[in-house]
Design brief:
Blueprint (H helix, E strand, L loop, with lengths): L2 H6 L2 E8 L5 H14 L2 E3 L4 E3 H5 L10 E5 L4 E5 L4 H13 L3 E4 L26 E3 L6 E6 L6 E7 L7 E3 L34
Parallel strand pairs: 1-10
Antiparallel strand pairs: 1-9, 2-8, 3-7, 4-5, 6-7, 8-9
Length: 200
Amino acid sequence: MDASEELLYRDKLAESETYMSGPENRRTNIRLAAAAVDGTILMPGETFSYNKIVGERTAAKGYKPATVYGAAWTKQELGGGICQLASALYYCTLYSNLEVVYRTNHRFAVTYVPHGLDATVAWGSIDYKFKNSTDYPIRISALHRGHQPLSWCFTAPRRTTAMWRWKPGGCPPLPTPLSTKSTVPACRGNQNSDQRLYRL
């Protein structure tokens, strides 16, 4: 972010940190997807599509085989692991009080976000989408330094006073106040657990 953008997008709406664990192939995939999303600016009314921004996960782009989860199986597939980023974005979407357009959870519980706050993606079938339902532009930033956790941040022009943040290792606090209008769609896909998320 250059100096002018840093001055403009200086209010943090939400921030999350996610640790990149697992094999090097998985961490490589996460870094590539993060680089694709970093710097995205959503104008008012614009919809963010994870698959559109990240694009197809191919070997030509540097993506490596890593574990992905299906209905009742696991397998090695190019781009495995990048659902972790989609989940971090989902968290920021909720705590920025933005409109969730489409989100599907994993069939099995994941360990990198609190239970019920995950979002799965698959090229050509499952996407994660949210809408900038505000009246101002929003910038999505990804920050990673060496072995430090990857930090996602939603920022906007100066107009707000609250910022919600979550780090791995605990459930995020519920911010106050929240909109009375729910923007969280019904949870889909997980047949092994009952997950309900409410915006109060």
